[in-house]
Amino acid sequence: MNYIYYPGCSLEATALEYNLSTQATMGALGAELTELKDWTCCGASAAEATSYLLSMVLAARNLALAEKMDSDADIMIPCSACYLNLRKVEDHVKQDKKLLDKINEALKEEGLEYKGGVRVRHLVDVLVNDFDPESIEPLVKNKLTGLRVATYYGCQALRPYVIYDDPEQPRSLEPLLLAVGAKVHPWEMGAKCCGAALMTTKKDVALELTGTILKAAQGADCIVTICPMCEMNLEAFQESISKTRGEDLRIPVLYLPQLIGLALGLSSEEIKLEMNLAMTDAFKTKIAG
Amino acid sequence: MAEKQIDFDIPVDGSDLLESVQESVRACMQCGTCSGSCANSFAMDFTPRHLWRLAQLGETDEIFNSKTFYLCSACYYCTLRCPRGLKLTEAMSALKRLATARGIKRHRQSSKFYEIFIKTVERYGRVREMEFINRYFFSLKDPLLPLEFVSLGFNLMKKRKIPFQLPILKPVRDQNGKVKYFEGRFERLFRKVEELEAR
Description:
The complex is a heterodimer of chains A (289) and B (199). Helix content of chain A is 45%, strand content 10%.
């Protein structure tokens, strides 16, 4: 299976391990990723807060580039915010021809045109729909037996576009986790908000949200995320949250392809486990079997 | 009503856009599902439901004095659940745009965050997280605020997640070949978008 791969800005820096483990794990599953050439920022949450047209144009530029590579391609995106921004353009131009014309007038500056081709897909959508858990099971070399995983889906991979999962009670990843031998931690936090960019602008509020999620994850061996923003918010402030709440809420937080990669026999070097901020020796011992 | 297209793409000079926000919540029946679904309503001065009522009534000052819309983390629960199918998360974004354009002082911290983020994109085409966050902290002129993030920065460095990136600005030269200024990656695209928006 072939995909155009859009990593996005965070995956070049703070979420580098998400980028490298996505490539390694998808490779191990037999998928071929071709990185989108000359990709640029999707606009994040900032473009929309500055200019609606700019938010459309920045995301559309990447779709136009992908279309030039292959107009019938699936573009796979691991970052939930990037995914939503590109998905929005795909959706909005279908409903509004005038918007598409305006976008293309701007894209002329870049020598590009977007015609509405290519399909925007989140990494999770690809993993759960293009790969059958039964076909993954024989590829498992390091069964994660007994590992209890709290699956955290966050917001923008689930909402507002309801594509591959229940937007409030997501469960799409469970067959995959069971296929690699893991157990699913039962909780109600899978689709709740981590606070996103509020961690920088209104830190107290975001800490309240992440604290609640970390608390509910107690009993699990790790949390698995599918978004660089969720990952950062959940793993980077565990010590101060634990101090404020007066209980130890520290827990390893992994990106989904890191965990799947481990099960497929990739080394912790290949999935960059040393880059995770909240990794513990106890966890490393446990996954070493 | 739910399927009606709402045009948020209106110049952000004030009343027009607010009218479009007003229009987008006109069908709100004040059921409060948005407030009950909002992760951050506990920290808001007005709940989302209350804010939409103020919008219906055209209470501009009260809306822009409120910090409610800057507390929206775009989780889309309200949009998902609204029984009238209103695009509430997008309406919150529209209010952020308006507040930024109006330069309202009490929202400086939030609006600076978005402004500086997008400036970094204009400069490089991609966000350079470290440069962005440093410029953001610097713009706030609050020496204590960055301290809350010092240990995180240190951790990220230790984990080698802060890449060293060279400037990639394009020199623009005069006819004698002397560098006049450096052009950002997206400077022309951004100017074009501004021009299209002003039309």
